[in-house]
Design goal:
The chain is α/β, with parallel strands linked by helices and 419 residues long. The chain has one domain (10-408): FAD/NAD(P)-binding domain, CATH 3.50.50. Helix content is 29%, strand content 27%. It is built from nine helices and 21 strands. Strands 4, 6, 7, 8, 15, 16, 17, 18 and 19 form a nine-stranded mixed β-sheet that branches. The protein has a six-stranded mixed β-sheet with strand order 10-2-1-14-21-20. A hairpin with a 4-residue loop joins β16 and β17. α1 (18-29) runs parallel beside α6 (200-213), α1 packs parallel to α9 and α4 packs across α9. The chain is globular. Mean pLDDT is 92; it is low at 414-419.
Length: 419
């Protein structure tokens, strides 16, 4: 990477999810003038309706042998926690083949070593945002993980042993007395300390407002169609507005990343893994997140309600909302909870998580000088968005490679190395 004669003065960030907004905020820390453009609005992709976990020790590579087997079993069942759409495009088939090739224990350990530096710094990046004026709170609370008697906790313990071996602190203990919000169908509860949670929608609105208050511009309804060189430097062309001039550009469009990134030389497939969520009423306010591995569903306190999020649907990112998926979540969690009114369902949502075949994000420069990408974090864009933005902003503004980002080079090929 060439070191520029001077840092970029004006940077356009495409995408107003957690990754894009955090990148813009940290670019401002380096003195950049920023504009954030989004096809819809703040948090309109996968950021708004997710569970809101800030759980770095759970941010692990998605490809692993058990998940691959589960996906194959769920292929014919549209209500399975992991479901593959039977209408697969060639790009999706390519993704699945490469995902299967990476679903080995050795590849998982390699990916975990790459993610660990980001995981270890993830919560500190949220603290930097708070110290800099982002007033939306993060709530520290353990994650309670409940298992029915027919589901062993060995697989989760094995995964967390791998996280620990990669260099993270894992504070896991057994809860001696199982009680609410778990029903009698849950017989084992593990407690994972040192994690946090947020209201994603509220947090993103506050982060966007902080970017604006520091002189940045956040514009919704602005779909970018191309990035080119033009008079005076880079030009970000939109469908309905005059081009934006920029010294540098960051593309952080989540599951829509290939539209702009492929012409820039990024060949790693990005597949939508659609997640569904809703909020439900509760008898007593919750204070702790809950995870139900048997249902692959996460529940998080959300004011006087609880957000219920789950499923992984490998399908087109713009496919219509499938009510069967939401109904399946309700049925899957109902036996395991008490004090949750699953008849009081509000805020139904679906969002496309951006998945990569190796389970690692795409962060760094493209073949077009001055243009970078940041995306492909899978289920962990909220947890890892701020630390990604902090490291990428440093790389963009100094022109010097950041070692922690090396494994995530967007131009890496099948081997995982930069092309």
């Amino acid at each position: 990477m060439d070191v520029p004669d001077r840092p970029p003065r004006r940077v356009v960030v495409v995408g107003a999810g957690m990754v894009g907004l955090a990148t813009a905020w940290f670019l401002q820390e380096h003195g950049a003038e920023v504009a954030v453009l989004d096809r819809s609005g703040v948090g309109a992709g996968a950021s708004w309706g997710n569970a809101g976990y800030l759980a770095p020790v759970m941010a692990v590579p998605l490809p692993e042998p058990g998940l691959l087997r589960e996906g194959l079993r769920g292929l014919p069942d549209p209500t399975a926690p992991l479901h593959l759409s039977p209408r697969l495009r060639p790009a999706t088939l390519e993704f699945l083949l490469r995902f299967a090739a990476r679903s080995t224990s050795a590849a998982w350990r390699e990916g975990m070593r790459a993610l660990t530096p980001l995981d270890r710094a993830a919560l500190a990046a949220f603290d930097e945002l708070a110290a800099g004026g982002v007033t939306a709170p993060t709530h520290e609370a353990p994650v309670l993980i409940g298992f029915p008697p027919d589901t062993a906790d060995a697989a989760l313990r094995h995964e967390l042993d791998g996280v620990r071996a990669a260099g993270q602190e894992v504070r896991l203990s057994v809860v001696p007395d199982v009680g609410p919000p778990f029903s009698d169908r849950i017989t084992t509860v593990l407690r994972l300390d040192g994690q946090r949670h947020i209201d994603p929608g509220g947090y993103l609105a506050c982060l966007a407002e902080s970017v604006r208050a520091r002189g940045g511009r956040v514009a919704g309804g602005t779909r970018v169609r191309a990035i080119r060189f033009g008079p005076g430097g880079l030009q970000v062309e939109t469908w309905a507005h005059p081009p934006e001039q920029a010294d540098a550009v960051v593309v952080a469009t989540g599951a829509w990343l290939p539209e702009l990134a492929r012409p820039l030389g990024v060949r790693v497939p990005v597949q939508a893994g659609r997640g569904y969520s809703f909020s439900a009423g509760v008898r007593e306010p919750w204070t702790q997140p809950v995870y139900l591995p048997a249902a692959r569903v996460a529940l998080t306190p959300l004011g006087d309600r609880v957000r219920v999020a789950g499923t992984m649907e490998i399908a087109d990112r713009d496919a219509p909302f499938d009510g069967r998926r939401l109904d399946a979540i309700v049925r899957s969690v109902a036996p395991y909870l008490r004090g949750v009114d699953l008849a009081d369902v509000r805020d139904p949502w679906v969002g496309p998580r951006p998945l990569t075949p190796d389970g690692l994000p795409l962060v760094g420069p493209t073949r077009m000088p001055g243009v970078h990408v940041a995306g492909g974090h899978g289920m962990w864009g909220v947890t890892l968005g701020p630390v990604t933005g902090k490291l990428l902003a440093r790389q963009v503004m100094t022109g010097r490679p950041v070692p922690e980002l090396a494994p995530f080079h967007p131009l890496r090929g099948r081997s995982g190395r930069a092309a």
